[in-house]
Specification:
By secondary structure, the chain is an alpha/beta fold. 44% of the residues lie in helices and 10% in strands. Helix 3 links the parallel strand 2 (71-74) and strand 3.
């Protein structure tokens, strides 16, 4: 018997909240959250938040930007940006900076101007800036002294809370048994949790089924 046509699932947009009340605290992000809460009592006016993709760096940076009035600038746009404009509020989030997208001269100019104007800069990155290779020697010196606070992979409690939040962002309800099941079978990372919830949401829409442990087993089996 020939199988019927595979129904297409349309990816509907969903809003992910970056409000302070929606940030999930845990052992892995305690130091980073403490840094945000301590502002302006920072060890340096330029700080870095480091950690893997999806670990909450952008969420914390957004919370800080709301508190300080900071502008948010993608590191990829730094070469085209005006440094005085970027620092015009006295605070700046430089998002997703890495050795791959780093423009030595633009970053050097920005950090020098921030120092002159005593502006605050919060850098988000996957690795510690001090480890990056740059051509401008004085920039290398600047990067080596930037204090970095690391966000670590989640423990069980935080991963479970994250799964519940990601489901709620998509207007889905995952019961405790399903959350525990996912926690022990997905990649133990924030990115892994996001990917798993997105896959379950898409398959549930395609099959017009509720998200259950049975559906999760089917989806995860296909992803192996």
């Amino acid at each position: 018997m020939q199988a019927g046509p595979r129904q297409l699932a349309f990816a509907l947009g969903h809003a992910e909240s970056f409000a302070r009340d929606d940030f999930i605290p845990g052992a892995s992000n305690k130091a980073a959250l403490t840094l945000i809460d301590r502002w302006p009592d920072w060890p340096d006016r330029v700080m870095a938040l480091t950690g893997p993709e999806g670990c909450g760096k952008t969420h914390l940076a957004t919370i800080w930007a709301e508190e300080t009035g900071a502008r948010i600038l993608s590191a990829r746009l730094l070469p085209q940006a005006s440094a005085p404009s970027a620092l015009s509020t006295g605070a700046l989030v430089l998002e997703d900076l890495s050795a791959d997208v780093l423009d030595d001269r633009a970053l050097f100019h920005l950090l020098n101007l921030a120092r002159e104007e005593r502006a605050f800069v919060l850098i988000t990155a996957r690795s510690v800036p001090a480890a990056w290779t740059v051509e401008i020697r004085d920039l290398a010196s600047r990067l080596r002294v930037i204090p970095a606070v690391a966000m670590m992979p989640p423990d069980d409690a935080l991963l479970q809370a994250l799964i519940v939040k990601l489901a709620a962002d998509r207007q889905l309800h995952f019961d405790e048994a399903l959350v525990r099941y996912l926690t022990t079978r997905i990649e133990r990372s924030f990115a892994g949790a996001r990917a798993a919830v997105a896959a379950l949401d898409a398959e549930a829409m395609r099959q017009q089924r509720p998200v259950t442990r049975t559906l999760a087993a089917e989806v995860l089996r296909e992803r192996v």
